[in-house]
Write a structure and sequence with these properties.
about 400 residues; alpha+beta; FAD/NAD(P)-binding domain; eight-stranded mixed sheet; 11 helices; binds adenosine-5-diphosphoribose; binds P-hydroxybenzoic acid
């Protein structure tokens, strides 16, 4: 089999790329190792920036997002028992974000691709990419028990953090920059209305907490927990009590979350990682295959979308004009945005979490920084601009 663009991975990056290429008249094949049900069930992030929403609408995946997505004009920061709201539109020239689960984005994109797109093979596990520096790179994969090859004009690794495509960039060229954090998130989904109509990011002596949502009747909540935590050690009651303690307000001691049945519980590691360059010969990396951010700034999905928007434009430009200029610029163009998001995610994470080795001095610095955001329009605008997403091409 031959295709113009071989896409490894059917997560948000691979699926959105396939749809953007379909719009531009460029053919592609998507190879995904898992089955469709697994890919559609996976619980991940839930905040979409304007550019991500625009891209989803442009590929025809905007209908359910527009009907069911929740538009958010701000977030609340809680620290020192106080609440401070950061208003996005007034600080960013009218920009805002959408709450719409990544798992729903994936369902919408899969449905479109299955209806009228190029091949999307589930259960297709890629073992290697060969010939990155030739004109005809080859993907080796196993599908329905048979070893197969797909020859391509270009290969895009959208295969996430544990993917195989990164290995196509020679070791002497590839460089990975990493940071791990000494804490994880315990995340739950609960059939309970959100306590508040916006997200709440809370700094507390007991550790970080985040109150998010999926719909007017479903809450998504997170607690900072030690690395290695077993979710089974956290009963539902213990989770709700801890969330209430970390989100407590001095001005309203009666304030509590609304409780309901917990339908899902899992522990997520926190990590920052960037692999450079994001292109070698005819092989490109996009999304989690190239970079990971801790979830505190809600940047992971949006960075993945930004990569494939830039890449689809470059591949379409190549196909319509023959010029490789934009493809040649891909890695540098993406990495500028990636490093900005890495910094923002690191900043949000380290400002809001309690490091187990943290001193009282460190805590006072965090509180001073949060106070600065609450009292200075400049400091809150810096947070707001990064949160809603810097416009593509300006970092
Ligand atoms: N062969 C085929 N498919 C593979 C292989 C392989 N060898 N290895 C991994 N995959 C598939 C995975 O099964 C997964 O569906 O690649 C896909 C990668 O998807 P994601 O991990 O969701 O990565 P991406 O599409 O870049 O999306 C980034 O996911 O983790 C979040 O915060 C992150 O929201 C961001 C988004
Ligand atoms: C989520 O709703 O899953 C979510 C929201 C904001 C974050 C991280 C996760 O920063």
């Amino acid at each position: 089999m031959h295709t113009t663009v071989g896409i490894i991975g059917g997560g948000p990056s691979g699926l959105l790329l396939a749809r953007l290429l379909h719009n531009a008249g460029v053919d592609s094949v998507v190879l995904e190792s898992r089955d469709r049900a697994y890919v559609e069930r996976r619980q991940r992030a839930g905040i979409l920036e304007q550019a991500t929403v625009d891209a989803l609408r442009a590929v025809g995946a905007g209908a359910r997002l527009d009907a069911e997505g929740l538009v958010h004009d701000g977030v609340e920061l809680r620290f020192d028992g106080r609440a401070h709201r950061v208003d996005f539109p007034s600080l960013t020239g009218g920009r805002r974000v959408w709450v719409y689960a990544q798992t729903e984005v994936v369902k919408d994109l899969v449905a479109l691709q299955v209806a009228d797109g190029g091949p999307l093979l589930f259960g297709a596990e890629v073992s290697a990419v060969e010939g990155a520096d030739t004109d005809r790179p080859v993907i080796r994969y196993t599908h329905e028990g048979r070893e197969q090859t797909l020859t391509c004009d270009y290969v895009v690794g959208c295969d996430g953090f544990h993917g195989v495509t990164r290995a196509a960039v020679p070791e002497g060229v590839r460089r990975t920059y990493e940071r791990t954090y000494p804490y994880s998130w315990l995340g739950i989904l609960a059939e309970a209305p959100p306590a508040y109509d916006e997200l709440i990011y809370a700094h507390s002596e007991r550790g970080f907490a985040l109150a998010s949502m999926r719909s007017p009747s479903v809450s998504r909540l997170y607690l900072q927990v030690p690395n290695g935590t077993d979710p089974a050690d956290w009963s539902d009651e213990r989770i709700w009590d801890e969330l209430d303690a970390r989100l407590a307000l001095a001005s309203d001691p009666q304030w509590r979350l609304k409780r309901g049945p917990v339908t899902q519980k899992s522990v997520l590691p926190m990590r920052s990682s960037v692999t450079e360059p994001m292109r070698w010969g005819r092989v490109f990396l996009a999304g989690d295959a190239a970079h990971i951010v801790p979830p505190t700034g809600a940047k992971g999905l949006n960075l993945a979308a930004a990569d494939v928007i830039v890449l689809a434009r470059a591949l379409a430009h190549r196909s319509s004009t023959g010029s490789a200029e934009l493809l040649d610029a891909y890695s540098d163009t993406c990495l500028r945005r990636v490093w900005r998001a890495e910094h923002f995610s690191y900043f949000m994470t380290t400002t809001l979490h309690t490091d187990p080795g943290q001193s009282a001095f460190d805590t006072r610095l965090q509180l001073s920084q949060l106070e600065r955001i609450a009292s200075s329009p400049h400091a809150s605008a810096e947070l707001a601009e990064n949160y809603v997403g810097l416009p593509l091409g300006r970092h």
